[in-house]
Write a structure and sequence with these properties.
Order of helices and strands: EHEHHEEEH
Structural class: alpha/beta
Largest sheet: 3 strands, parallel
Distance between the termini: 30 Å
CATH architecture of the largest domain: 3-Layer(aba) Sandwich
CATH superfamily of the largest domain: P-loop containing nucleotide triphosphate hydrolases
Length: about 140
């Protein structure tokens, strides 16, 4: 059965570790920024302290594009685990009204089409999960 898992969190929150565990348990292919960036950084000799040159991001983009092309052409039975970082910087990730931020779908073990949305306060893990409908309403939005 095809499953798509999406792990979101700030750097050093354990997305890669959890993704590796899930991949080992399920056989799903893990697509993580470390697995895309690290071969380029290693080949360049990045030490984690010295700023990276601007041109290196062009190479990272090429690897990311090739990876996503492979994902889009994967067999219909290949499951994937994706990781992502959402910034705490309010200026990043802002969307305008009407911007698509997700799609309804029915992948994995589900009873029908749905969109999974979680809202967490303060990055405190599952204990910080709050009701998205209430949070959206508190922002003047209608879920």
């Amino acid at each position: 059965m095809l499953t798509i898992t999406y792990l979101v969190g700030p750097p050093a929150s354990g997305k890669l570790t959890i993704g590796l565990e899930l991949s080992a348990m399920t056989g799903a292919a893990l697509i993580d920024n470390h697995l895309i960036n690290d071969p380029i950084f290693l080949a360049y000799g990045a030490d984690g302290r010295t700023p990276l040159p601007e041109w290196i991001w062009d190479l990272v983009a090429q690897v990311r594009e090739a990876t996503m092309t492979a994902v889009s052409r994967a067999t219909k039975t290949t499951s994937h685990i994706f990781t992502n970082y959402l910034s705490d910087d309010p200026s990043e990730g802002q969307v305008e009204a009407g911007t698509v931020i997700g799609y309804v779908g029915a992948t994995g073990n589900t009873t029908g089409p749905h969109l999974h949305l979680e809202v967490r306060r303060g990055g405190e893990g599952l204990d910080a999960t709050i009701d998205p409908a209430g949070w959206l309403a508190s922002k003047g939005l209608r879920p």
